[in-house]
Design brief:
single chain; alpha/beta; D-Maltodextrin-Binding Protein, domain 2; 3 domains; seven-stranded mixed beta sheet; 12 helices; binds adenosine-5'-triphosphate; binds 1-O-pyrophosphono-5-O-phosphono-alpha-D-ribofuranose; binds magnesium ion
């Protein structure tokens, strides 16, 4: 038997739940034979796939080393943990969950410090006054270094923080922090404020491919099947299916529906009896139904789509472009 195809997914918390739901919606059911504490799983119907349940940061490292073919993890962890990330992994698609911003936050009491340029000024003053550099508490050491360097800030020192980073300024172990925020509640509760231009990265969970994995023809075929499921579901989510039948429908009317409402006609124009199937963005359904009735339709029905399989698979095309032929 050939080596398994490894899909790495988060082993706990919100990311795990969201990831399992995401694959399930795409028709890929992840299951663990040994229950919740089993860190190996399978995908029903895909025999050579091994699902590896790992922490989100470990997934980034495993992808960088080529120990997993595909994985789900946050872009923040990819950028923090992988040097030269764009050469070693490819972010195939943002998954629409796990949103978090990596930000520079300072005590609210620093009323004169609004921007990174202001911060640059006070770091220099702080060093002269206190004979030590300002301390930045973070677990995002690399992202912080890169961002501070891009803003020309050099008078600071990083204090590595494993958790509860937002508490560091009040505890006196740092002057400011770099950490993730989603709702802003934790920053506010700790009397901190994000600098106006202090957002380092807007992160979300991504489907990530590894360059260094063993991309045998069989592994590529497995990736194609997985990405085909995901692309079909993504395409289905973007549209509702609209059906109607009326004689006055012609190419000019379809052209107008396309430019006004973003409507696609996946099976071409109306049939000889005037039957028409359209795909319409959800937000435009009422406007489209009104438009069709104004032009002669008696009835317009709308249904949700589960999957739309296209010949083209943009996700697999992106993977192939990244891996090279
Ligand atoms: N409110 C949030 N808190 C923590 N992580 C979040 C939040 N929202 C989104 N995320 C994302 O989830 C990922 C972190 O997941 P998780 O905490 O499981 O990671 P980890 O690196 O394994 O951390 P841990 O040390 O807690 O095990 C990151 O990509 C992060 O951006
Ligand atoms: O902006 P907010 O919505 O307040 O979210 C941000 C906070 O949430 C996370 O911690 P979490 O409580 O998940 O604990 P963790 O340290 O175990 O990740 C994260 O580390 C931040 O501290
Ligand atoms: Mg965490």
């Amino acid at each position: 038997m050939s080596a398994p195809f490894v899909l790495a997914v988060p082993s706990k918390g919100r990311l795990q739940e969201n990831t399992e739901a995401f694959f399930a919606r795409a028709g890929l059911k992840l299951s663990k034979a040994g229950g919740a504490r089993d860190y190996r799983g399978t995908i029903a119907g895909l025999d050579n796939v091994e699902v590896a349940y790992l922490s989100a940061s470990e997934i980034a490292s495993q992808l960088a080393r080529g120990f997993a073919h595909l994985g789900v993890t946050g872009e923040d962890l990819v950028r923090e943990n992988i040097a030269d990330a764009d050469k070693r992994v490819s972010l195939i698609e943002g998954l629409g969950f796990g949103y978090a911003d990596v930000v520079v936050a300072v005590p609210q009491a620093w009323i004169d410090v609004r921007t990174m340029a202001d911060l640059d000024d006070v770091t220099t003053g702080f060093r002269e006054q206190h004979h030590m550099r300002m301390r930045v508490a973070t677990k995002f050491v690399n992202l912080t270094r890169g961002f501070f360097q891009a803003h020309g800030i050099t008078d600071y020192r990083i204090v590595e923080s494993a958790g509860a980073t937002e508490g560091a300024p009040a505890a006196g172990s740092a002057e400011l922090i770099v950490d993730i925020t989603t709702t802003g509640a934790t920053l506010a509760a700790n009397g901190l404020r994000v600098l106006d231009d202090g957002t380092i990265l807007r992160s979300q969970a991504n489907l990530v491919a590894s360059k260094g994995a063993d991309w045998s023809p069989q592994a590529r075929e497995t990736a194609r099947v997985i990405l085909d499921h995901i692309a079909a579901r993504a395409r289905a989510n973007k549209y509702r299916e609209v059906r109607t039948r009326f004689r006055q429908c012609d190419a000019a009317l379809l052209g107008e529906a396309h430019s006004r409402y973003g409507v696609e006609a996946p099976f071409g124009g109306p049939t000889s009896s005037g039957m028409l199937t359209l795909h319409c963005p959800p937000g435009q359904l009422y406007a489209l139904a009104s438009f069709l009735r104004e032009h002669g339709a008696e009835t317009v029905s709308v249904v949700s789509l589960d999957y739309v399989f296209d010949r083209e698979n943009p996700l697999f095309a992106k993977l192939e472009a990244f891996l090279g032929q």
